[in-house]
Amino acid sequence: MSRIARILGGGVTRASDGEVPLIGMTDGALVRRTLEGDARAFTELVDRHAAACLRFAGRMLGDRSEAEDVAQETFLRAFKALEAYDDRLPFRTWLFSILINRCRTMMSQRMRRERRVVFDNDALERSSVEAPQSSLDLREELNHAIAALSPEQREAFLLRHVEELSYEEIMSVTGAGMSALKMRVKRACERLQQLLTDEGGVRR
Amino acid sequence: MKKDNSWLEIDEVVDPVVRRAIDDMRATKRIPEEWRAELLSKVPKRRRRPTRVWWAPVGLAAALCLGVGLTVVNRRSEATITTGTASVVRFSIRAPAAARVSLVGDFDRWDPAAMPMRRDGNGETWMLDVHLPPGRHVFAYSVDGNLETDPMAARAVEDDFGVPSSVIVVASLGGESRR
User: Fold this and answer.
1) CA of B34: how far to CAs of A28, A50, A64, A122, in Å?
2) By the number of CB atoms within 10 A of the CB, which of A163, B15, B144, B174 ranks highest?
């Protein structure tokens, strides 16, 4: 008798998919289970990453409706392209590469329509936790300051400091070089500092 | 003259006002329930994907001749290694008395819940096909909570830390994998 048989010697029950808890699984494992037909696994991926996607899109686009459309489209495109996902890259980084492209496309469509970025208070409310009244002034200034950045600076700043991607990851999802990215982040920080400390400067 | 890139190293120093703004933006928590429900309603059903397995050289001849996978009945466990572009690895372990067996390793952060194995037709062997990227992977089998190494694979030096584990090396494109 094998060592295992001696150790175990108990009854046999067949493992089933329904018994497998998804919480605690790596994103890579969830992707594999999704590809194997486990719908719960993709739902878990949505629950893990939707907040970040909505947050990023909301800040990039400044429009709640557009941000929600872009985030949904991102997940649906990711689902269709899941076979191509290489788990040497973090799933969130791969997802953001899709999200960034959708945001860029949305912004270019908006420019073609000659619409300027309009700040949507409802979108910001969605992307923020409840805040005491005393912090609302700061939040309003912050929202306008973020919207005042160039799209490239805003994108690099949000990815680095809010979503906390490494510069290597940002390079892979934006296609920009390291020096350019660091310059954009640095200038975004300087611009935000200027806007947030110069009272009334962003609401002229 | 060497270019001064010192500014590249200091961009992480953020003014307290900006830092406060960053903390505020990071505090996102809510996913709109109606948005989530609408998204999930749009996700198409995915049919169970057939598993593609390329057998290791040792089993290739038999697989080609018989059209079926090679089964070595007197082995307690085996890991069949992929060669070529598709890194599908078949892990199997004979544990007829086990109630639960799962594959754990550095590819699933040693999470016993991540990769449960399934019994094959004879009811004695547990199997799992896993997509693995090229490279060295340390793994073990969790048999009813007890970690077991693969006797056909090399032992990992990580054994020094008290965790019994084996090693599999998945080859890159066109290469040959080995344990």
Assistant:
1) 27, 13, 14, 15
2) A163
Domain of A88, CATH number, reads: 1.10.1740.10
Residue B28 pLDDT greater than 80, yes or no: no
Question: What superfamily does domain B57-170 belong to in CATH?
Answer: Immunoglobulins (2.60.40.10)
Contacts (Cβ under 8 Å, ≥6 apart) of B71: B125
Structure tokens at A177: 């070089």
When scoring B8, B10, B11 by the number of chain A Cβ atoms within 10 A, the one with the most, hence best to mutate, is B11
Q: Residues in chain A, how many?
A: 204
A75: nearest CB among B39, B99, B143:
B39
- The three-state secondary structure class of B136 is strand
* Radius of gyration for chain A, computed over Cα atoms and rounded to the nearest angstrom: 22
Give this prediction's pTM.
Answer: 0.56
Nearest to B97 among A4, A39, A88 (CB): A4
Domain ranges of chain B: 57-170
